[in-house]
Structures are given as C-alpha cells and as structure tokens.
Amino acid sequence: MNQNHRAPGLDVLRGLAIAMVLLYHGSCVLTDPQIAALPPPAEALLLVFKQCWSGVHLFFVLSGFLITGILLDTQSQPGALGHFYVRRAARILPAYLLMVGLLWLTGTVTTPYVLVCLLFLCNMPGLLAQQSEYGPFWSLSVEEQFYLVWPWVLRLCRPEWRSAMCLAMILGMPLWKWALLAWAPPAFQDISYKTWVLADFFAAGALVAVWHRQGHSLSGVGRVLLMAGALGLAWQMAWASNLSSSWAQVLRLSPWLLLFCGALCVMLTAKAPRSGTLSAGLAWLSHISFGVYLVHQWVYDRLAPWVSLVEPQASPIDRFLWITGVGTLLSVGIAWCSRHTLEQWFLTQATRPHRG
C-alpha cells in the first residue's frame, strides 16, 4: 500500500480486532449460568466480552480497505495483480499451513478436514460433507475467497462506478439476507459465515479506500457513523426482540458495520500513538495479529485441562483469568516467533525480485 495512505490508527484498529477475538474466546470458557452467578460488575464485564465476537468483522472492514488500497495504488504497474497474489500467498500460507499441520498432528482436526482447510472452505465445510473442527479458520476462508474474487471485480468495474458498486453491496445486503431466509433452500440459508453475506463489510472498507484516495474528508462522516452505530446497538439491545425472527437476524450485524466503518474513517486521520499508551500496545499487537488469531484457540483448548488439574477449585472468574491471561501470553509468544522467523523469511523472498 502507498505509504501516503498508511495511517498509524489502522494498526490500532487491527490490534483492537484481535484483542476483541481473544476476549470473546476467553469468555467462552464460562457458561451463561456461570456468568449470571458472578457479582454484578464481573457479570457485566463478561457479558461485554461475549459481544466481542464481532472483532472478526472489524478484520473484514480493514481487509476491504487495505486490499482495495493496494490494488488501486498498483493498478498501473506491470504485473501488479500477479505480485499481489504472490504477496498474499507469502503472507498467509506459511503460517497457515504450519498451523494446519500442527492441528492434524495433535489430533485436533481429522484428515478429511485438512482437505477442507487446504481448499479454504472452512466457512462451508458441508460442501465436502464435513463439520467445522477448528473455529478460527472460518474467517480465514472468507478472507481468501475475498482475495480471490475482489481484484477481478475491481479491475472489471469502471473507476467512476466503484463507489456506487460498494454502496449497492452495503445497502442491498439486508434485503439479500432476508431473501435467503425467506426463499432459499435450507442449505443456503446461512447468513453468518458465507462470503456472499459478509461482502458488505469488505465493501464498506473498500468504499472508504476509494473515497480516501479521492481526497474526501472522512472525519465528519466517521463521527456520524460511530454515533449511528452506537444508537443502533442500543436500539438492538432494547427493542430488537420486537422484530420478527428473520429481521432480527438480518439486522444483527448492521450496527457493527456502522461502528467499524466509522472507526476506520476517524482513525485514518489519527496521530501516531504515543509510546506506553494502550494505543501503542494495540499497534504492536497488530503486527503479530495473524499468528495470534491462528494459534490462540488451540492454546486455550490445551490450557483448559491444565488449569483444571492445577487449580481444581478455581472459581469461574479465576478460570477465565487463567485461560485468557496465560493463553494470550503463550499465543503472543508463539505468534511473535513465527512472525520474525518463518513468515518474515517468506515475505522477504516474495519481495526480493521486485526491488528496484
């Protein structure tokens, strides 16, 4: 991506996204009755963490923005599309394939599911008559399917139509989801994990990338979207139960889309985070977020029996703190080693032939 369009705030958002995912999966070690039995402050905090599943959708918005930016900035360069795919492969495949191998060797996934992983179909394993066996992989399949299709969509779309195309994808998604629930065969009624029902998040990031390169001021738009997203979440929590079941499902992600798109617009103009602040920590975490995302669930699952053995009388909140705290530290350590050895080597090889 052109460095003129690189904003330090984007790293903060990526770090926030992975932190949300970690907190959500950490909170999943507690059942709803266990959370309800906690003291009110702890219960409220854990309920907030339970909503952090949406962090993965922030990744989708960021991917839409960053990938569209790369494609737009390099569209006039010879061999740009091939270079894009080489870079994506070098960035994703080494650590991903290593993780798939680790999961298979430790018996976490079966041999048939390895094929699902290799084909990046983890968001629809039913196509190969399989069930999901490692949760985090579903969103990576969505990302890979986006990488495969979006460069060609962007190339075939006339520049003056790109904004309209992204807006159409965003505004048309609720109706598309409702149509799937109303008329599609049961096998096609999933509106949570398929790429074609999550395209609005990628399109939102892409739209911001297009507008940003056209010189539009986005800070005001970002604040409006943040306010609209916050009001949408409040309305959803208070009154969404009055909607029909299908419309409640269709609109469930809409406030998050507004929030994340607004945050992206605002952070594009944010100043570099100061050393020692939370923002600086999130920015540092963003650089190893891919490895952390790959390995954290496996680490949490391996840590859970150990906590039960060492602290058999641990309270639910202590169990959450043990697994989330120690598991996150271990995941960060593994991801840091991977990022600065295996992943960095492949990235260096991918860029070497293109140096001036």
UniProtKB/TrEMBL annotation:
Residues 9-336 form the Acyltransferase domain. The chain crosses the membrane at residues 12-31, 52-72, 92-121, 164-184, 196-212, 224-241, 253-270, 282-300, 320-337. InterPro entries: Acyl_transf_3_dom, Acyltransferase_3. One of its GO terms (cellular component) is membrane. One of its GO terms (biological process) is polysaccharide biosynthetic process. It comes from the Bacteria. One of its GO terms (molecular function) is acyltransferase activity, transferring groups other than amino-acyl groups. PANTHER family: ACETYLTRANSFERASE, ACYL_TRANSF_3 DOMAIN-CONTAINING PROTEIN. This is Acyltransferase.
